[in-house]
Amino acid sequence: METFIQAFACVVGHEGGFSNNPADPGNWTKSPSGTGQCRGTKYGISARSYPECDILNLSLEQAQLIYRHDFWDPIGADELPAPLALLVFDAAVNNGVTRAVQWLETARKQAANSTGAELCAEFQAQRLIFMAALPTWKQFGRGWARRLCRLPYQSLTIT
Q1: 30 forms bridges with which residues in the sheet?
Q2: Is-contact 11 66, C-beta < 8 A?
Q3: Cα-flanking dihedrals φ and ψ of residue 59, to 5°?
Q4: 3-37 b/e with 16+ CB inside 10 Å = b?
Q5: Under 8 Å between Cβ of 42 and 63
Q6: What pLDDT digit, counting tens, does each position of 9-21 carry?
Q7: Strand, coil or helix: 33
Q8: Strand, helix or coil at 41?
Q9: What is the pLDDT of residues 99-142, one digit of tens each?
Q10: Fewest CB atoms within 10 Å of the CB: 8, 79, 84, 156?
Q11: Is the sign of the CA dihedral 85, 83, 128, 38 positive or negative?
């Protein structure tokens, strides 16, 4: 199975189906939260990032096309070792492509001349530091922490 398809299955599994929680800033079509329309998030595709998208009726196939075009390709995931590709891809979907690439660059500097496992751990540490500082950590942090802890194990299954 292609690496992207395997990684997509993992990430979309973390993102889940439709959510319309008004406390989630991504569910609103405009910033700050509470402005625009609360149209929700589905498969990680948010109303904030895709205000013209019919979130409620988004198909898994449509989400897969968006993931490939907007997240996988821009991070150069096909050039990364499969386990690292999953970690960076998940971060791109959840935290943005720019941040994911910056964390990868920082991790490469911090873990220069190290094993792949150390590079992956440093990448996850960069991400955790950022996420734990978010004002929404108190409400969503437990789920994010589970996701961040589960990903390294899932990355071992990606080929």
Answers
A1: 35
A2: no
A3: -90, 160
A4: bbebbbebbbebbeeeeeeeebbbbbbeeebeeee
A5: yes
A6: 999 999 888 988 8
A7: coil
A8: strand
A9: 999 999 999 999 887 778 999 999 999 999 999 999 989 999 99
A10: 79
A11: positive
Strands 28-30 and 45-46: unpaired
Q: Which two tokens stand for residue 63?
A: 């989400």
Do the Cβ atoms of 32 and 23 come closer than 8 Å? Answer: no
How far apart are the C-alpha atoms of 104 and 84, rounded to whole Å? 9
CA–CA separation, 2 and 77 (whole Å): 12
Tally of residues, the chain = 159
Q: Which residue has the tokens 């001349």?
A: 113
Structure tokens at 43: 């498969």
Give the predicted TM-score (pTM) of the model: 0.89
Short-list 54, 85, 67, CA closest to 12: 67
